[in-house]
Amino acid sequence: MPTGADALADEARRPACTALPPPEDAEVRQLRTPLDIASLLRRLIAEGTPLHLSTPEGALLGTRLLAHDGVRRRIGFEVADAAAPQLQALLAGAEALATAYLDGVQLQFELHDLLLAHGAAGSSLQAALPACVLRISRRRSRRVRPAGAPTAHLRCPDDPGTALSLQVLDVSLGGCALLLPHGQPPLLHPGQTVPHAWLELDIDTRLQFTLELLHVTFMSTDAAGLRLGCRFADAQPQALQRLEKYLWRAQGKRSG
Fold first, then answer.
1. Domain range spanning residue 247?
2. Cα–Cα distances in Å, from 130 out to 7, 71, 81, 111?
């Protein structure tokens, strides 16, 4: 019978638990109210759900959530070995992400202000209470990875004078994913709305949408940046009809 530490180590070795972008057929919802987030975190604690903490540089640590302090706005994770190299790599990273699975739905939330705390009962890894938790589940409409060099042209909501041209990673009738290259300032943030964005998918398909940025996720370590998951906030029937024709053509080319 494996020990608790062995079980966590086995979970941490699973490659699917690295901080990769959501699957192509995923649907992402945001939990932002303190009541919803507190309820979810307390359930993770009560059920002893395995969590995986990761960084873009490749650090990966298996753990469980032990504490939720709404007054101090802190959470605490189990630490099996305070000297573990993966823990030290996690603490040294500039960014970190927590991932778990509950009822078949993937949960993700960013970790900030990480620190290792020592007490009479042992060590724990503490972080700031997350302000947003993503629920990533399977979607009904499958996304398509466009061929060629599809591009989204938009302006930064906080600085309309700044124009961006970002690669379109995938697209569906409900939204799209864009690539924000490494080294480019993070001008877009979850919750922002970007009006009058133009999507140039091919020579015959140029569509205008208002984009709502739902989430920003780390790409794999060999990729070129961050993945911006967007929803079409005010899709017009004519634009959706043209997009649907494009998706049929794209799917036909891939299967042909």
1. 151-255
2. 26, 13, 24, 7
